[in-house]
Amino acid sequence: MKYKVYIFDMDGTILNTLEDLANALNYSLGTNNYPERTIDEVRRFLGNGIYKLVERGVPTGTEKADIDKVFKTFKEYYSVHCEDKTKPYENIIEIIKKLRVENCHIAVVSNKADYAVQKLCERYFPNLIDIAVGERENVRKKPAPDSVLEVLKKLNADKSTAVYIGDSEVDIQTAKNADMDSIIVTWGFREKAYLLENGAKLTIDKPIDILNI
């Protein structure tokens, strides 16, 4: 294998979480008397963490205190319902298993809240992920490279042997900021043309292509 460490984004890369995130956002908006959003709107809002999703979801001009109320509702709802309709993308589990057979390290770095990252990794990828990290206090979110570099340090791995795999412009910039190779997938939350416009150098259309790089 060309790489020995594969660092995956979560939402839109290994898990299709869109429906559960949209349901959580719309529940939170409705509970706080705001209009709901379409699933395509939610898709565009994703990539920078749950708070930013909520901030983009509420009407323009909403006060921060009110955004915080919606965010609190979202966290409470999503912690219970984050697995309702979420599922791994087709063949992604098999691909990760094949990478493990090749003695590769597998990690997940996400802007999703850390509690949800841990829960979903345990649910869908038991014993397959070496390190999983989500959004945490006092750690800069992607596209800052902090969590990616933290993973490499914990694995005692050089970035030249690692690749970052994601589905959005945030992931493209994260890999660039970490000064490492990237693979950008087109089955997630962004269109291929948009990804190319935002600097994607290598895109793939199906998980099996990860093994062919």
How does this structure look, described?
This protein is an alpha/beta fold and 213 residues long. The protein is built from ten helices and eight strands. The chain has helices at residues 18-31, 39-45, 50-57, 64-81, 92-101, 114-124, 146-154, 169-178, 192-197, 209-212, and strands at residues 5-8, 15-16, 87-88, 105-113, 131-135, 162-166, 181-185, 203-204. Strands 5-4-1-6-7-8 form a six-stranded parallel beta sheet, with helices on both faces. Strands 2-3 form a two-stranded antiparallel sheet.
Annotation keywords:
213 residues; alpha/beta; 6-stranded parallel β-sheet; 16% strand; globular
Offer a concise description of the structure.
It contains ten helices and eight strands.
Oligomer: single chain
Count of separate DSSP helical elements = 10
Strand content: 15-25%
Task: Give the overall average pLDDT.
Answer: 96
Element order: H for helix, E for strand: EEHHHHEHEHEHEHEHEH
Shape: globular
Summing up helix and strand content along with how strands pair, one would put the structural category as alpha/beta
Poorly predicted tracts of residues? none
According to DSSP, the number of beta strands is: 8
Specify the helix fraction band. 40-55%
Using the CA coordinates, give the radius of gyration.
17 Å
* Spatial strand sequence of the major β-sheet: 5-4-1-6-7-8
Distance between the termini: 9 Å
Largest sheet: 6 strands, parallel
